[in-house]
Amino acid sequence: MRGSSAIRLFAAAACITLMAGQAVRAADFSGKTIEWVIPFSVGGGSDVWARFFAPLLGEQLPGRPTVVVKNVPGGGSITGANQFQSRARPDGLTILGTSGSTQFPYLLDDSRVKYQYKDWSTVLASPTGGVVYVSPELGVKSAAELPRLKGKGMKYGSQGATSLDLVPLLAFELLELDVKPVFGMKGRGDGRLAFERGEAAIDYQTSSAYLRNVVPLVKAGKAVPLFSWGVLDDKGEFVRDPTFPDLPHFIEAYEMAYGRKPSGIAFEAFKAFNTAGFAVQKGVFLPKGTAPDIVDAYAKAFAAVVTAPGFKEKAGDEIGEYHQATGAAAQKMLDVALAIDGEAKGWVKKWLTEKHGVKFE
Amino acid sequence: MLETIASALVGLLAGWHLAYMMVGVLVGLVIGILPGLGGIAGMAILLPFIYGMDPVSALGMLIGMVAVVPTGDTFTSILMGIPGSTASQATILDGFPMAKRGEAARALSAAFLSSMIGGVIGALVLTVFVVVARPVILAFSSAELFMLTVLGLSMVGVLSGSSLLKGLLSCALGLLLGVIGAAPATGEWRLTLGLDYLSDGLPIVVVGLGIFALPEIIDLLRQNRAIAAAMALGRGWREGVRDTWRNIGLVLRCSGIGCLIGALPGLGGSVVDWVAYGHVVQTSRDRSQFGKGDVRGVIAPESANNAVQGGALIPTLLFGIPGSGSMAIFLGGMVLLGLQPGITMIETRLDLTYTIIWSLAIANILGAGLCVLVSRHVARLTTIPYVYLAPFMVMIVLFAAYQATRDWGDILALMALGVLGIYMRRFGWPRPPLLIGFVLAPGAETYLYQAIQFYEWTWLWRPGVLIIAACTVLSVWAGMRMGRSGIDEGGESADIVHRRWPQVAFAALLAGVFAYALFRALGWSFLGQVFPLGIALPALAGTLGVLALLLSSRDHAVVFDTERMIHVGQKTMEYYLAWLVALLAASALVGFVLGLALFFVAFLAVEARTGTRRIATLTLSAVAFLALMSWVFVLDFPRGVLQEMVRMPWPMN
Q1: What distance in Å separates the CA atoms of residue B566 and residue A290, rounded to the nearest whole number?
Q2: How far apart are CA B227 and CA B232, in angstroms?
Q3: Which candidate, B445, B399, B439, places its Cα nearest to that of B623?
């Protein structure tokens, strides 16, 4: 009797020690390898973004684990995100990086989507921006003159109505511009070439591509910038893009053109997709059920990465110009993106079907 | 400018830069040799090390890798008959017959020399044109690009062998396979059979390996011997060099073709070997040996596929738009280094631009030299009885296919296309046209649609379009000039065939596929259906024509079956197919790694009848290879029922 109770006591003590040990160790990744799932191929924008962050993240996480990027391409990023939803265990050893192309099919209720953003914890939101510009032949100098473009047919080289191009297409709709998208472009670069050839009269580029390839055109008088997409501040309001402080953001441009703020269901939809496409252009997520201390460890690690001295210089203009939101701030941005209500969503789908022939099942 | 060029060379030769480039070259060669893996896989390996490196070393390493992939892949194409990467598919047609004949040394030395010259010419073209090419690239709009895809499709004529009709139908099938996925104009999913896997379309690596590699593996197994009938390499190193020298004009022309195709964004480098091959057949007086081991059939694609990268760098550096698949990743690498691809590379970083160009030239020379050094050893593989080699080949081909999108779908698609390839080969349906159709389908459809959207029908009168149209007419005329004597995959002409029902059944099945595509296309929107309808309708008619000929005629060229005379003691193709199906079934149960191990044990025990120790050694080395690949590429292998139920240790997870 005495012996067995001693054993029991010992066992209980051992259990408690083990459990306590685990609680302490839960957010310690010493000697571990963390897989960062990127649902895109090697070398694409999201892959490069993750490979830039991976070693920095490893240095800042407790225990300094190795962070490797694992590419699971397919289905325009749906395959990899689905796999993460169904397979990733909430131990902090598997994280997911997504982009606008992962967010959009989710928001549009694509039948292939099996993942749930609301299940996940957001630890980083990397924004990017973009600038809309037109051909000087249209005779427009700034956003204030936008109404003069009404009824003028303009072509726009697009990757597809449900791609990131949904944001500019919605913007053109709100501004009542007569833009005819020509689909099948393989990237924004192709659209820019069409603009340079004089085939397309209106185009937009994301910030870094705009800086390096369109600014020379603007200087040579071959392109006229109109407005940027703007960025979200901490309160979830749109403000001017810090990269382009002299350019109005979309809402300002609308006011300059029409003398009032944009409103209505189309604008609600635009806000949601603009946020999902640009403010949270890329995000990092932990799977459902991850313990708060692990989520916290990641949020802190990312915060340490983006505030480290020299981060901006290292990141270059691809990443560095924008405020990288971490932890709660990142989660808040994602919430703005996911806040789209059923009515606005229904409106977008109907508009996509009627105007661009997109079929929803 | 000359000063910049010289100082870039000095900078590259100083310090450790060359050593890094050498690392890139070695990775590139290995990647090239492994079937199906191309520059994209190489970039995946190198990218993690790039971050934080000095730009000269990093660029040298990346370019060194990209430059020599089409040099290294020649080994696999010539010695194994399996495309080493998508850039060397056409090399197989003549290179592999040469190896079987014991002329591997001659084929390899001709290939390496032409690769080197092609690569250096690519670098030279880049040196001159990178400064002035901007207006040239802007002159190629969607209309001109569409005409170029038509020019590419016109090569089908000379690649069709004895039956032009079958060649055209094979091309139509390729075009329809290329249609699978989202429509460029409307985004609707076409011919996806309701599978998520197909919504992105079939990966080209999977199509190339399925159509060429699997049939070759099975054919070699049936012959039950080593690949090379004669000596491993044979003599002929000098002869290969002389061959190249004699055809130096061809080398220069094909290098030019390679540069041009590479420089045009959107056409992609994967078609260039076929265009070069079609070119050499069209312009040759004596075509009797093409497809049976004509060294010119090796020289043409090999000089073109190395020149591609020089051309592809032009739009990459000037516009930040990739000229080929690996350039897309090179762009990613540049961004990681903090460099801005685009016109600023010419205006402000001309020094680095010339570093890239020098790296390209030097890497091509280094790569070709290394290949010559190691080829004696690599070629020994061809003397091993194929029954030992086959399981490894199957493993590598499956692994390479799985690298495409890392989905079970890759493996299933590979098998399906492999079966298609096996029977196409058996019944004399030429396979190169299928691949050309597949590669060009998306471009042909997208650019035609865009040209009409941008220019309406006035695109037909653009000067560039007219010039390319004239080239197309010339190309078709050159192909017809000599009558129907182009390459012939099957070899012998048709004679008495007793059992004709197998080929009738195959043709009927094809007619069924075309009819199905036609039927589905009727339900799509106008812009989505126009292109597939335009293919499926005439293709269905043509296939019905073939069926009629098969049923009525006795000695028409369409009648063809390699199995009409079965050799005594030879097992059927279906027997070996069953092995592959068993491997897949095992993988579906216990996952790919364990399934493959079981396959190795069973296959070696039954087919090779070898001892326990050798079986164990070979199987363990295969598993070790997979483990290494899993670690290098950070990937999990296909999972089976077992993995869904139990958590298995790496690398069996």
Answers
A1: 63
A2: 9
A3: B399
Contact (Cβ atoms closer than 8 angstroms) between residue B228 and residue B100: yes
Amino acid of residue B313:
L
Measured at the alpha carbon of residue B266, what is the angle toward residues B263 and B268, in degrees to the nearest 5?
A: 70
Task: Give the bridge partners for A69, in sequence order.
Answer: A36
Q: What whole-number distance in Å separates Cα of residue B117 and Cα of residue B244?
A: 10
Token pair in block for residue B612: 């326990």
| A160/B187 Cβ within 8 A | yes
pLDDT, tens digit, 9 for 90 and up, residues B108-130: 999 999 999 999 999 999 998 88
Decide if the complex's ipTM is over 0.90.
Answer: no
Q: Which chain A residues in 24-43 lie under 8 Å from chain B, judged by CB atoms?
A: 35, 41-43
Q: Is the Cβ pair B199, A357 closer than 8 Å?
A: no
CA nearest neighbour of B269 among B261, B257, B260, B277? B261
Q: pLDDT (tens digit, 9 = 90+) per residue, A284-309? A: 999 999 999 999 999 999 999 999 98
Q: Is B175 exposed, middle or buried (0-12, 13-18, 19+ CB in 10 A)?
A: buried
In chain A, residues under CATH classification 3.40.190.150 are: 31-127+280-342
Residue with tokens 């382009």, as numbered in its chain: A244
Report which DSSP code applies to A140. Answer: -
**What are the E-state strand segments in B91-188?**
181-182
- At residue B57, the pLDDT reads 92
Number of cross-chain residue pairs from A and B with Cβ atoms under 8 Å apart = 141
DSSP one-letter code for A249: B
User: Considering CB atoms only, which of B141, B320, B405 is closest to A74?
Assistant: B405
Q: How far apart are CA B645 and CA B447, in angstroms?
A: 48
Q: Give the CATH class of A130-277.
A: alpha beta
Contact B362, B28 (CB under 8 A): no
Q: Which residues of chain B have pLDDT under 50?
A: 484-486, 488-497
Q: Which chain B residues contact residue A212 at CB under 8 A?
A: 320, 340-344
The alpha carbon of residue A294 is apart from the nearest alpha carbon of chain B, in Å, by: 23
In contact, A166 and A277? CB cutoff 8 Å: yes
Token pair for residue B648?
Answer: 């298995």
B210 three-class SS: helix
Q: At residue B190, what are phi and psi to the nearest 5 degrees?
A: -120, 135
Helix (H) or strand (E) holding A238: strand A238-239
Look at the block and give the residue holding tokens 């009885």: B385
CATH class of A31-127+280-342: alpha beta
> What is the β-pairing status of strands A238-239 and A202-206?
unpaired
Q: How buried is B133 (Cβ within 10 angstroms: 0-12 exposed, 13-18 middle, 19+ buried)? A: buried
